[in-house]
Amino acid sequence: ELMKQIAWVAAAAALSCPPAAFAQQASAPSADSVTLAVEAQPAPPVPHLVTLRRDTPLDLIATREISTANAKPGDQFILLVNKPVVIDGQTVIPFMSPATGEITVAAKAGGLGRNGALSAHLLYLTLGDARIPIQGEVSSSGGGAGSAALAVAFAGVLGLFHRGNNAKIKAGEHIPAFVGEDVVLDLSSKPPRRVEMRLVPV
Description:
- By secondary structure, the chain is of the alpha+beta class.
- Helices cover 22% and strands 36% of the residues.
- It is built from five helices and 14 strands.
- It has helices spanning 2-16, 19-27, 31-40, 147-153, 157-160, and strands at 49-52, 57-62, 66-67, 76-81, 85-87, 90-93, 98-107, 117-127, 130-135, 137-141, 168-169, 174-179, 183-186, 193-195.
- It has a six-stranded antiparallel β-barrel. A three-stranded antiparallel sheet has the order 1-13-14, with no helix packed on it. It has a two-stranded antiparallel sheet with strand order 3-11.
- The protein is elongated.
- 21% of the residues are buried.
């Protein structure tokens, strides 16, 4: 009888204790585990800020041929950095970084020896998620020596069938460019991250 009473009291005590209390006791982390979790977090890297100055020269190369035979204004094309930009011994713009240009004029070659004309301007250089404005222009004409003179020689109906040359930007052609504005980069992040000038400590 005594054992039954003890069992009954134990059961009543268990029922009177809220389940949340057991859950809280089971799930609550110990102070030691919290301390270890905090200590395990790595310290953020120290920013390494470098200013890329406006008018810094860039040597770019075209990655493919662009011709007035199929190009049109508004088309964009990719160039690559041919020489890395180094500041204070630190590579800021790596070799083969991509840049983007845009066609502004694309006049096809025509009859009577009229050559094509092609012009483009440069837009930006890409470093990771950062876009760095760049400046530069490139232009080309068909320029086939003697095309106009030859058309005159075939004046009349035959001259109409003498077409000029399409203008081209050849694959591998070097195109000079310049950084368009002062840009601050944080080289401690990979890839480099652009930092707004207003956030840079003076």
